[in-house]
Amino acid sequence: EAAEKGGYDWFMLKEIAEQPAVVADTLRGRLTDTGQIVLDEVRLSDQDLRDVTKIFIIACGTSAYAGMIAKYAIEHWTRIPCEVELASEFRYRDPVLDRSTLVIAISQSGETMDTLMALRHAKDQHARILAICNTIGSTIPRESDAVLYTRAGVEIAVASTKAFLAQIVACYLIALHLASVRGVKWGDEVSLIVNQLREMPGKVDQVLDTMQPVRDLAREHLSDARQVLFIGRHVGFPVALEGALKLKELAYINAEGFAAGELKHGPIALIGQDTPVVAIVPSPAGRDSLHGKVISNIQEVRARGAKTIVIAEEGDEAVVPFADHLVRVPRTPTLLAPLVTTVPLQVLACEVAASKGLDVDQPRNLAKSVTVE
Ligand code: G6P
């Protein structure tokens, strides 16, 4: 087993380190300059994709957070309305589905029963199904109309890391493909995004090179925490949810993710000196005034005594006065930022768990693939 871990203490560490390659592999050979991709198994015509009027993304756990990120990209790039729904809830609320609905099922294992049952329900209502999956030939892709495989390789650690980044990449590819097939007219923007995507493996690598301070921070400041809050906006919101999920899964710390703007509507009551807050700051170059708004959210929690761990872009000087701990990530277009901002949160959770002497790869009560409803 030591050999399989390739010199790392845990499979999870190895899988985190593989992420630049996984992002590159999932992109490789799939993107034309016009944003069209070749799906792996297609039983859907381009006309079927042109006829789509509504998209639902169904998934569980970490895969559902990839779906939340996908929603931002899909709606922005394709203008098709898109909802993300936990697979375990989907069919029980009797969703409105028909032949013009595209359901995107995201699953690392391809065997998650909640996702499979939601998929079958959608199929019964004649929706088209597109799977994003990491396991070739598993049940979910077999039962779908089209498949895009993530190329993360086998993921052994129960807590998902590299499969998550691969899913996010696959979601971007599908969003671009839909935009392109449907003739959304902004060719230059598509080729710009394609080029930006091609830079992401290098950026993920850069993040990995700067993780020692995050490991030190985890050991020195978070291993005794009883509660940690994560805040973000726009695509930083699902990243906050994923960061919190990782910390609860691995370190058994009560961790919650919030949309930063929602803090004032309740969660701020949880803030005190003993509650570190991890903030994912959007790019200062990004949409509207979100950057400034997150900074004022950080000021609000600091004013109530919280220590702040701030994930922000290189060159973003506005965050410096409000960060007790500052983690830098490379400059990245807003929609693609989750590929870099997630990585420090994975490292943080892994290191906190390791410092508490916990089994990083096999957390209590969890299974890699849940094949019961
Ligand atoms: C389990 C795993 C999670 C995973 C979820 C969905 O709960 O512990 O890490 O995100 O299932 O799995 P899937 O294989 O469908 O992506």
UniProtKB/TrEMBL annotation:
The active site is at 368 (for fru-6p isomerization activity). GO terms for biological process: carbohydrate metabolic process; fructose 6-phosphate metabolic process; protein N-linked glycosylation; UDP-N-acetylglucosamine metabolic process. GO terms for molecular function: carbohydrate derivative binding; glutamine-fructose-6-phosphate transaminase (isomerizing) activity. Signal peptide: none annotated. It is found in: Cytoplasm. The keyword Acetylation does not apply. GO terms for cellular component: cytosol. It is an enzyme of class 2 (transferase). The chain holds residues 250 to 622 of 622 of the full protein. It comes from Epidermidibacterium keratini. The keyword Flavoprotein does not apply. This is Glutamine--fructose-6-phosphate aminotransferase [isomerizing]. Its EC number is 2.6.1.16.
